[in-house]
Automatic annotation (TrEMBL):
GO molecular function, one term: protein-transporting ATPase activity
Compartments, as annotated in UniProt: Cell membrane
Membrane topology: Multi-pass membrane protein
Family, as annotated: Belongs to the SecG family.
Regions crossing the membrane: 52-73
Gene Ontology BP terms: intracellular protein transmembrane transport; protein secretion; protein transport by the Sec complex
A GO CC annotation given for this chain: plasma membrane
InterPro entries registered for this protein in UniProt: SecG (IPR004692)
Name this protein carries in UniProt: Protein-export membrane protein SecG
Keywords: Cell membrane, Membrane, Protein transport, Translocation, Transmembrane, Transmembrane helix, Transport
Primary residence: membrane
Length: 74
């Protein structure tokens, strides 16, 4: 019963992780994008929605890792 619940939670977390990564805005391509992207990160010019999606992605990834470990131990 508990293993089935953890498996269902694992599937939900995997779908949520994929969705949260795909919803984030892409970085600029090329060398100029790498330089500008590093400067934006360094000076903290993140937009509101991107910052929220970054935090959501981090939390969902941690929960995904925890459910992966639980399923691996069973």
């Amino acid at each position: 019963m508990l293993k089935g619940l953890v498996t269902a939670l694992h599937v939900i977390m995997s779908i949520a992780l994929i969705a949260s990564v795909l919803l984030q805005s892409g970085k600029s391509a090329g060398l100029s994008g790498a330089i500008a992207g590093g400067a934006e990160t360094f000076f903290g010019k993140k937009k509101g929605m991107d910052e929220l999606l970054g935090k959501v992605t981090m939390v969902v990834a941690i929960l995904f890792g925890v459910t992966s470990l639980l399923l691996g131990l069973w």
